[in-house]
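User: hey, got a sec? need Defensin-like protein folded
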Amino acid sequence: MASSKFHFAILLIVISLIVNVQSIRVMDDSSDCEFKGSCQTKADCYERCGVGKPPFKIALCEPYGLSGRVCCCV
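Assistant: Yep! Here you go:
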């Protein structure tokens, strides 16, 4: 009985380590965004990002720290 509890505890530790490594990979600080000023809605970013014109094809209005929301051009 103690052996199965030990194996279960080891399995939980291994799973938690795998999940932790994956979450660190997701929280990578590198960004594909080019920030182009403040916004309130996604539509505010269309002209700034040049939606439909290369090289930017996507405009997002994203929260950015304490400075409110900014246009993220991808």
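Quick note: The chain has two domains: 1-30, 31-74. Let me know if you need anything else on Defensin-like protein.
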